[in-house]
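Protocol step 6 of 9: fold each sequence in the batch and record its structure tokens directly after the sequence line. For illustration, a two-sequence batch is reproduced in full.

Sequence one:
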Amino acid sequence: MRIRDRSKCRSYSATYRAKNLAKVRAANRRYAATCKDKRRITKLMMRYGLRPDQYDAMAKAQSYLCAICNKSLKLYVDHHKASGVVRGLLCRDCNLGLGYFKESPDALSCAAKYLAERHEMPLHEAQTRKREPNQLAFWSGEPVKE
């Protein structure tokens, strides 16, 4: 049994791609166009253990809207990162927002409280103060004229 040197295979592959870039890109576009559904099915099963009919049933149950903001956008699967349990379907912004808050209900409630308290708050004096011309020159990189 012959064992191939994988580093040679990788270097040949990289060289071939560099020489035949247009051909490789055209083949990738053809594959992507013909296998879009297959890729979706594989992704749902591998990442979340969902069949497409289960995903479609979840989307229909949510009226094809994000479970948080109720906007009609592309829906992404929201799952608990530690256990992998699927919780629902969210838009990209809501799904990323949960991730940024580390899925912590405490952090999210603190953020909601912060926004509620400061919703109608006036701007700070520093934000409304007019800049002096010499300050503008400093920030633009020009020499300050005195």
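Sequence two, same batch, same settings:
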Amino acid sequence: MQHYPTINYLAVLVAGIVIFVLGGLWYSPVMFARRWIALQGRTEEQERAQAAAANMPLMYVSAFICGFVTAWVMAMILAHIAASLELNAAHGALIGFMVWLGFAATTSYATALSPESPSSCGLSTRRTTSCVSCSQE
């Protein structure tokens, strides 16, 4: 029976936290919140009202768990590859890019093609993706 490779769970936890924090910053007024709200055809007041009615602790815990799972899966992929290949940071970055391109980018783009998807520049602006290549405000 094949065993799973050893994973550094402290690194996975730290990566999960970083994903969570960066996601929070991404959708904050510091970065792209106003643009994201505008692309949905909503106002900031509507967004605040929806947030007030939502179960925010559950949303935050769910967002963190998603980031943790993402980090864990990437660690598993890298550990399996490392079992047969000497890895360095460049390999990790290349593998991360390839996983993003093969899974996240393609599914996000397919979602953005939906006519009911709020979009600008042809990219989805849902919570999973954001259009950062636009110069329009």
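Proceed to step 7 once all outputs are recorded. Observation for sequence two: Helices lie at 9-26, 33-39, 44-53, 56-82, 89-112.
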